[in-house]
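[09:14] KT: can someone run the structure on this one? pasting the chain below
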Amino acid sequence: MIMSSPADLLITPRRIVSLVPSQTELLYFLGLHNTTVGITKFCIHPKQWQRTKTIIGGTKNILTDKIKQLKPDLIIANKEENVKEQIGQLEKDFALWVTDVNNLNSALLMINDIGQLTNTAVKARLLSEEIKQSFDRLFKTHQKINTAYLIWRNPYMTIGGDTFIHDMLGRCGLQNIFANEKRYPVITTDEMKNRNCNLVLLSSEPYPFKQQHINELQAQLPDTNIVLVNGEMFSWYGCRLLHAVKYLNELITQINTALPDE
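[09:31] RB: done, structure tokens below
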């Protein structure tokens, strides 16, 4: 059963499976160390859980038989990160909470919902309030900066206007030049040129961009500032948001310094 409200879960869960890395880290932050029994291979925070929890596959290729063996009383998934058909198989046998996060406000709602589901509502509320207050201290760029945020190479892929990363860019004052696109479109360097791209952010995940890829792109976009960024700070929408503002403020300061005055 896919629940529509935290109140639909009539018990306090004792065996939780998490199918989303950022939400797994949130469970750890909320103190659900013994309650969480299964995670994906991409749930790299906290590191020790990769050794102590059952790995139930990846976010897109869930091993349903392994999950059934764990007999969870709650499975936490995400509309975007998991596959609808696989979630459909699980809902026949288990209680599922499927989150839908595409901006900071929905991330804060998700944190509070999981707090209610797991009997950690007070800690979750304090966390969401601290994150909200920290974003009040977020810097913005001094001028409009046409930005492309790349998540993949061969082919290049970016983020559209309906994504969590887009919302994070906007809060920094960065103008997503592909805001009119949906989800994660394939793009070309010519499209970046045609949209007057001033700044390219190369994410550390899911594709692990490195310095060599800056050199590769710079040859095609010689007048564009290209910067490597920590993808977790733009896309992990759980407790990692506590660290995001410090990182983003340092990045914005770097970007402001690099770009010429208008």
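[09:33] KT: thanks! The mean pLDDT is 96.
[09:34] RB: yep, looked fine to me
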